[in-house]
Design a protein that fits this description.
Shape: globular
Distance between the termini: 33 Å
Number of helices: 0
Largest sheet: 9 strands, mixed
Structural class: mainly beta
Radius of gyration: 15 Å
Order of helices and strands: EEEEEEEEEEEEEEEEEEEE
């Protein structure tokens, strides 16, 4: 669905959501699946007790403060079905994020920690380009998988950084894709 022009409540159960037009904040209150299209300026926040199933289809989201534009606190699956843009950051607190590229690209740019997640997995066909103007582009606390047909491009003063997982285990890099 396109983002509404005014304050709106929609969906039900697993697909319930609210849109606050004054703060440009989309709150997804269920696990999904959700499909988002269109353009919005403001913080995109996902609030759910479980991992979220979210599809970006020619979506463009901008955080006014160049902070978190898309917040996935429990992780989940982010499907990209048509080229999409996130200006700010994609962050996940404790969950793992799987990005599925369906012959589409995802551009994420911001100041620092542009993609900041626990574990990250890229599958499908396409490119995730993370560009940080003032720090690390991709911060991965845990494992990174870049599947065949995928490219992860991380540029900025810090590029790509790994940290030991919360369990203390060293991160594992796997897959047959490209990391640039």
């Amino acid at each position: 669905a396109n983002l509404p022009a005014g304050n709106t409540i929609g969906g039900s159960g697993n697909t319930a959501w609210t849109w606050g037009n004054s703060d440009k904040k989309l709150t997804l209150t269920g696990a999904g699946p959700y499909t988002l299209t269109g353009t919005a300026s403001g913080n995109m926040r996902v609030v759910a007790n479980t991992a979220v199933d979210l599809t970006l289809d020619s979506a463009s989201f901008t955080s006014d403060t160049d902070e978190t534009a898309l917040y996935l606190p429990q992780g989940g699956t982010l499907k990209v079905t048509a080229d999409s843009q996130v200006t700010g950051a994609i962050r996940g607190a404790f969950g793992s994020l799987a990005i599925v590229l369906n012959d589409a690209d995802l551009d994420v740019d911001g100041e620092y920690g542009v993609i900041d997640v626990n574990s990250l997995s890229l599958t499908g066909n396409g490119t995730v380009a993370a560009v940080a103007s003032g720090g690390v582009a991709v911060n991965c606390v845990g494992d990174l998988e870049v599947g065949i047909g995928c490219t992860l491009s991380a540029s900025g003063t810090g590029g790509l950084i790994f940290q030991d997982s919360f369990s203390g285990a060293a991160p594992v890099i796997s897959g047959g894709g490209n990391i640039t």
